[in-house]
């Protein structure tokens, strides 16, 4: 650098002056004491000048080197300070990221546990369709998946229990308990909205005789065949029930008396034509008698509606069976 070159020239100049001063000293020593005279005064002044200038130049070089050393030291210290600062910043960032990571993991765990707890609470309150959505961590995701499968199993079991509690096992029709519930709801709806609901009671003619002739298995097959024919011949909004023994029932929402009577006649004819496959072999046939009543025309309460339909059914049986009788309008 420029500073180094100047220092080198200063050192060379000082070296040259020192050689000149040394040569003068040598000449003084060779003269001895008698060789020194006033004429040598200028030579002594030059010698003094050389010595002082040499000292000054060397001091300047020394001072320059000292300043460079201090500057280099400061630079090293500054560099060391920045390194340490960078290391400290890196350490702080590492700790901060670790803390943030722990917080995120904690929040994820808490959120996942809250989701599981909320799911369990909703399931306990009856919301069987609720699903738990947990994807992380993997352990809780596995728990959530097991939880959802458990919920589905519970729902299936509950549906099976509801079906078992509301469906007749022999015929596949709704049972008497479900009949009472549905009829009550439909009568209330009919009165509230000014619509009509029809009830058809169905009795298998001479069922005891059929049962005695073909045995209980034959009687069961006759009940199943009549039940299947009823279900095949009604609308999706209609419901068929095993009312008791060989007596069945059909509830027809939004049907007036004439429409319900037409449906009943169609069912009667279909049952009459239906072959019953008996366990011992060979087909058999049965007929049915049907009584029809409508709310609110014949009754405005479910009990009275059942009575009106039952009275019409009794008339059908007394008048020759295998027929449809409509309850009179009250």
Give the oligomeric state of the chains in this entry, treating copies of one chain as homo and distinct chains as hetero. single chain
Helical amount: 55-70%
Radius of gyration: 58 Å
Instruction: List how many beta strands DSSP finds.
Output: 7
Low-confidence stretches: 31-36
Q: What is the beta-strand fraction? A: 5-15%
What structural class do the secondary elements suggest? alpha+beta
- Give the overall average pLDDT: 77
Intertermini distance: 127 Å
- Shape, principal axes of CA atoms: rod-shaped
User: So how many helices?
Assistant: 7
SSE order: HHHHEHEEHEEEHE
Q: How can the largest sheet be summarized?
A: 5 strands, mixed
Q: Tell me the strand order in the biggest sheet.
A: 2-3-1-6-7
Structure description:
By secondary structure, the protein is α+β, with helices and mostly antiparallel strands. The protein has seven helices and seven strands, in the order ααααβαββαβββαβ. The strands form two sheets. Strands 2-3-1-6-7 form a five-stranded mixed β-sheet, sandwiched between helices. Strands 4-5 form a two-stranded antiparallel sheet. Helix 1 (2-31) runs antiparallel to helix 2 (41-124) and helix 2 packs parallel to helix 3 (138-166). Mean pLDDT is 77; it is low at 31-36.
Topology, pairings included?
Blueprint: H1 2-31, H2 41-124, H3 138-166, H4 176-193, E1 197-204, H5 207-232, E2 239-244, E3 247-253, H6 257-273, E4 276-277, E5 283-284, E6 288-295, H7 302-318, E7 324-326
Salient structural properties:
single chain, 330 residues, alpha+beta, five-stranded mixed beta sheet, two-stranded antiparallel ribbon
